[in-house]
Q: What sequence folds into this?
């Protein structure tokens, strides 16, 4: 076997067998990375199969992508991303988790140092693996859109980008995604379009300033049922949608 690999845990294998027997989907929702407790991390295959948690988890995130290999239906590609502002440790282990919190599979990962901006290198760390689990398995990705991070590659391929580095009026056509790269206000235009998308780039410190959506003149924005003139956006790298329903803009 290769020095680095991904394998089902025993609880994962049991969940998979049960799902296949009952015709139920297996929902993989999150991942964790860990440092393995240090450079001495050298688990055996049996230890990994028996594991229910990482040795020393340092970051937990939502999975961005899960898809079946078109050339080999028995293999699934899984990906998560450690964001720019998380790190300062070396990734040696990765856990892939079901929605009930069980560790479905575990990866012995090539040691990879995750830098942070203070190191002078602001980079994401994609965590990717292939997992062979059987062509008859119904394995799906269950996404919570409020927590899934958007990779730069995904954003650039899917949307027409509008840079928001100063006060600007929103573009409500052409699938435009407004990306705050500085503290600014994004004004919703009067009587134009019915939706637009926006997000805050991870280069912006959301704790030190404000990125805001401003209601059309004479109107309010509904945020979780509360009407307001202005909505403060407090989470970076989440794609939000503002949509006009029955004449009211909602986020």
A:
């Amino acid at each position: 076997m290769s020095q680095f690999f991904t394998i089902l845990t025993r609880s994962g294998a049991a969940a998979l067998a049960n799902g296949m027997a009952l015709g139920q989907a297996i929902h993989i929702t999150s991942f964790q990375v860990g440092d393995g407790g240090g450079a001495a991390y050298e688990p055996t295959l049996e230890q990994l199969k028996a594991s229910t948690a990482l040795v020393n988890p340092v970051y937990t995130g939502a999975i961005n992508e899960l898809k079946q290999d078109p050339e080999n239906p028995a293999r699934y590609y899984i990906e998560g991303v450690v964001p720019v502002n998380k790190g300062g440790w070396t990734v040696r282990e990765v856990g892939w988790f079901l929605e009930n919190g069980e560790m479905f599979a575990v990866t012995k990962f090539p040691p990879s140092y995750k830098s942070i901006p203070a190191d002078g290198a602001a980079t994401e760390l994609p965590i990717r693996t292939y997992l062979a689990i059987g062509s008859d398995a119904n394995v799906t990705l269950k996404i919570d859109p409020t927590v899934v991070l958007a990779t730069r590659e995904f954003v650039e391929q899917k949307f027409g980008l509008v840079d928001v580095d100063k006060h600007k009026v929103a573009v409500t056509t052409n699938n435009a995604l407004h990306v705050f790269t500085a503290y600014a206000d994004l004004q919703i235009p009067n009587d134009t379009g019915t939706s637009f998308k926006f997000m805050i780039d991870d280069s912006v410190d959301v704790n030190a300033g404000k990125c805001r959506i401003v209601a059309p003149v004479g109107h309010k924005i509904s945020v979780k049922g509360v009407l307001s003139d202005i909505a403060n956006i407090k989470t970076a790298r989440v794609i939000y949608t503002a949509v006009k329903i029955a004449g009211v803009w909602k986020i």
